Amino acid sequence: MGRAKPSSKATDDWSGVVGPALGLGFAVFAFGLSFGVMCIDAGGSVPKAMAMSLFVFTGASQFSAVSVIAAGGSALSAIVGALILASRNAVYGVAVAPSLRGSLPYRLFASQFTIDETTGMTLAQETPARSRRAYWVTAASIYVFWNLATFIGAVAGSNIDTQKYGLDVAFAAAFVGMLAPLVRSVRARRVAAAGAVVCIAATPFVPIGAGIIVAALVALVGLRPGAERGPVVSTGGPA
Amino acid sequence: MSWTLIVVLAAGAYVLKAAGLVGVGVRDFPAPIRNVIALVPAAVLSALIVKDTFTNGHDLQIDARAVGVAVACLAVWRRVPLWLVIVLACAATGTVRAIS
User: What is the ipTM of this complex?
Assistant: First the structure.
């Protein structure tokens, strides 16, 4: 909302943010539906599925936790794996911090929405005012669609034979979609390949779900000096 | 899936988000830590894919799930929208189960 710009430009600014934000909201809808259904399949309930999406609100980690529980893993394995995956949100927080200057309560509230999509949209804007607006519009869109989809999926999930419809591969398919934009660099592709091999190799010997945690250790190659700095965020994945 | 798990996960996820936005703020993490965190999703997501595709508890097995995930890989490679990737993968696995 530049002072010198005509009002029509300000309208353009809004549409330039709202359209993509709604598009992202629609995209996470399918993930939310899958999450709701699989949450029930893993022994959850509608209130539990909703508590996850309302309060955990970081899609890949929610998927990861439910995936480990569904496989028979312990709560500890599920939590540690999911939180390792959520650690990127700390980096996103740093990336969006310059666009979200304000009081401590404001920043504490804003923190809940620091995820892939909001970060990607915020960093894609040209002015600080647009960045801030993009953050909140995207946050609102994703939060509403993600939770609505979770609710519909969880309610429907109570009446669905997930095996019959192949819904048990919904998470794996979603993970493939999330992974694709992250492996553009050779280094990331090697890490992904090594993570898969380590997980398979560890599976017979470690507690169920802990293979994920062992695989995460592969990322420690990032400590090696000379690592290239990749993009801070990929907008390809869900919340 | 216990309430304890959900509460701990919600608290942990929030603390991580706030650690960046409020804790570190407009300063930044040291480069080595940033590099490691940037590589975590690639390692963990691919591990989750093989876990959900080829494992059953402690056992490794190849079944109808592999077909669905192969279809997902193909669909992602062909830049199919993500919601359709999920639908195609589920349909493929469901179909293999129905005819086998």
Answer: 0.91
